[in-house]
Structures are given as C-alpha cells and as structure tokens.
Amino acid sequence: MKKLATAVVFTLTFSITFAQLDKGISDLFEEVGNRPGAIIGVFEKGKIEFQKAYGLANLDYNIPITSKTVFDVGSVAKQFTAACIFLLEQQGKLSIDDPIQKYLPEMPVFQEEIVTIRHLINHTSGLRDYIEIMAYAGIPFENIFTEKMGLDIMTRQKERNFLPGQQFMYNNGGYLLLGIIVRRASGISIATFAEEYLFKPLGMKSSFILENPNRIVKNSATGYTPVSDSTYQKKHFYNFALGGDGQVYTTLQDLLLWDNNFYNKKIGGQALFDRQHERGVLNNGEIIEYGGGLFIQENKGYQVVQHTGSWGGFRTVFWRLPSLKRTLVVLANTPDFLNGPKFLELLDLMVAEKKGKQKTKEVDSVKTKTKLTPQQLQKYIGLFAVKEQPQLRLQSRIVNDTLSITQLWDGQEYQLIPSSENDFFRKDRPMVKCSFDKETGTPIIVNEIFEVWQTEKVDAFLPTVNLEEYIGDYYSVEADVSYSIQVLEKQLVVMRNNKKIKTLFPVSKDVFGNQIQGYQFTRESGKISGFLIQDRRVRNLKFTKKEHV
After folding, report:
1. Where are the strands (E) in 260-372, listed by range?
2. How far apart are the C-alpha atoms of 381 and 541, rounded to whole Å?
3. Which residues pair with 426 in a beta bridge?
4. Please, which pLDDT band fits residue 47 given cuts at 50, 70 and 90?
5. Distance CA 248, CA 351 (A)
6. 174: buried, middle or exposed (CB in 10 Å: 19+, 13-18, 0-12)?
7. Is the per-residue pLDDT at 352 higher than 80?
8. Number of C-alpha atoms within 13 angstroms, CB side, residue 394?
9. pLDDT reading at 350 higher than 90
C-alpha cells in the first residue's frame, strides 16, 4: 500500500483562541490532586502559547509538576539520536549508507545481506528488538542494564525478522546500535555528543541523555503506574544506563527550543531538516511514514510530524503541525493520564475550524465518508489470519449496515468507515487505515505507528488437539533461556524458572497464542521438535525441544 508524501498549505483564519483551548482541555482533564499527572503545552510560532500542569512530579514529597519539571520522554529520544547521526554525516565521519559492520564488526551478517545505518534509522533493518528478547529471557527491567548487555543480545541472534529494506518494523534495538555507532564514529558517547552539538548550542540546559544511573536529576518527575483507582507505585527505570533508543530527559521549556530548530534551523541547517524529514523507501519502492526519528503523516488534511514515547511510568506526545507552526506536547508521569479517546480529542483541539479556503489541494488521502450498501460490504466478510503472525486472527462482519472487525486475540471490536469502495479507516482511530483487496476480499491494516498487517483468508479452527504431545522442556540459544511446556487444568501453559508465565490457547494446527504473542510448534517426523515465538517485533525466535535420556 503506497503512503504518499503530503504537503498542505492553508490560508486560514482560526476561530479557536487559547482561552477556548484552555476550556477544551479543562473539559477533557480533571484536576488530579495528589496523584501523578502531566503538563500539556502548545507551542505556536516559536512561543509557549498555552500550558497547564496537572498533579504531582513526586508523591513522596508532594512536589507539583511545572514547565521546568524534567521528564523521561521515552522514544521521543529517537529524533535526537537520528540528529546526532546526521550531524556526524555532515562532519564527514560516516555515511548513512555505510554497512553497520563498518562500526559494529561484531554484528552478524545474515546470508550476505547488507544492513546500513539508513536501515536502522528507518526501522527497516529486519533485526530483532533487544527489549523483546529481554522479556522472553525473563531479565527484570529493574536490573542494571548496560549498552554492552544490549549489544550482546543483538549479536547473539541467529536469524533476522525479514530481509533488510523489505518492510517497516519499529525496533528499539536498531536505535541502540545507532547510539553505539555515534560513540565509535565520534570517539565520545552519544550523551556527550548530544550535549556538545544539540543541547548546549540550543540552550537546552535541562536536557541530557542518562548514562549514569546514579546521576542526581534536579526538578525531575518520578514515573508511576496505578495499582488501584487511588494508589500508585514507582515505575522509573533509572537503571537503563545507555542512549540511542531512549533515556533522554528534558522539559517542556527545552522542547520548545528543540521544536524551534525545525523552523529556524540553527543547528544542522537545511541539511539536517531534510534528513530528518526524508521518509524511508522499501525495496519495492513503497514510501513509509517514518523518517529521521519522526513519523511524517497526514491527519485531517494537515501534515503531522510526530513521535510518542512510552517507558516505565512515562508517556510523551510530541505532535507538530508544520503548516500552522503549532506543536502539542504532553509530558506525563503515569500512563493513566492520557487514554486513547482523550488523546484523540486533544488532537482535535489542535485543529481549528477553517474559515478560509485552501490555497492548494495537495492532500493525497484525506478521509471522506463513502456510503456502501450491505451488499457491497458482503465481500469483505470473513475470518483472516495476519501473515507471519498466525496467532493473530481478525473476524469481519456487518453490524447495523456497518463493517465491523473483531480482533480475536483480545476481543477488541471496532467499526470501519469507508473512504472509497475498498478503503476504510477506523472510526475511533482515523489514522488506522484498512484496504481490502478487490478480488480476494482480504484486508491490509495499517496501524498509525507501528506496523502493517497483511492478511489471508482462513477457515475456522475447531480445536481437537492432544495437548500432551506438546509437553516438554525447550531451550533458546538466542534468548539464552529454558521454557517448560506443561498441561495444567486442561490448558497448555508456559513455565520459566518454575513459574507460569503464559496460558496458551489453540488458534490453528500447532499454533497457540496469548494476546499478541504466538507459539508456533514445529515437527520432525511427525513429532514436536520445538517452537517459534512470533510477536510484533520478533519473528521465529527458536526454541528447541530437549531430549531427555
């Protein structure tokens, strides 16, 4: 599915005022009192035109959140990492088309395939994500974790997810490698490089990349996660002492300075701007929505340049409308502050009603509703399996003359609104797109952030499996961990270190699932020989059955 570049220029008079914005946000978010919360800021034309803080930065001492509070911004850090790489390119110390082994000779080469720095930047490398492997290995996220440990996981992999450049798959591991490349190409750590070439020149005095887990961070927010409706516990990973995929700490005020650089180009000039907005291209010529640490998309006729972050108890939104010179920032220290519906309503507030007319019409895919009859929708009804993730199945049906999809792995159901005969968007999340093949009726679903689901039509599966044949002990070299598959109360369960970690449910022949994770069992001479784990960022993680003598 092609996702073409979108550039929209408007001459508008906006009916919205910041007093109205204050009211709109106040209607969405109630005062949270003695709980963690967030600061919401709106930048326009180089200034903070609106800001409002909710809740506490620290529950131990009842310290309120302010515009100077320092937050861990999670994956919003990736645009800073990409900027460091592009500045090194300007300095002549690397090319983004260099093979990664030029700087990372310990990284394996799969079937003589070349993975470049550009592949890492665009999440098209095909390499596996070290954070996912950590989870499978049972490594606690509270442990001290270093750059070397992450690199060891990446170098231990015997396979990749897909051919370099074949598809987009969001990958923290790729950005960890970029952080290491910065150090090896420049001779200094990414934290030092970012301080010298980004933060200090822009005056971002409260911003840094965490490399010392014992560092004292003044005015910092602590990350929290809810335990109940009124109680919280700390969830703050100071222990990840590395840069690249995250670990940037910053403030609302400093993010204004960073946002302004996209307009005044003080650091890196037009060349840096162009690199960060250069969207990746797949081997088949398809243009993806990811550039230099940024998603470049379209929403309601406007180009949107954005990235979100989620790490520990922190949630971050950095969402820019270049044609309006308006940016929304949300820095939260608890995940329950900003749920999906509130997020969408908040985004709606950023786009005022238009009283003028478009000067140019360059919108490639503005979603407009199209009326389709139940007879026209009928050909899109069926049961579909996501390719490469056989544990994920979708059921489409017609409900009240509207096409509806149910995700069978989690029971989530949503309506699809047609924008053409075979193109749809999700009613509650319009940036999720779905296109049905006109001949086969199979859908391709494009998530707004992370992945594209190619599907195939399948028959219903009636489980009549003999669970006992899957029982056994299994080992993965790549995750360096052993699992035990057992049957408890007539269900297949996964044990690690004598603790149950998963209950598996039959999906199809030799395929079991639990939410988004899949266990695809393999056979030799008809007998179970192992299984492959499939999930959103790891394909074919191999476990081999141990032979007991």
Report:
1. 295-299, 302-311, 314-321, 326-332
2. 33
3. 416
4. very high
5. 29
6. buried
7. no
8. 26
9. no
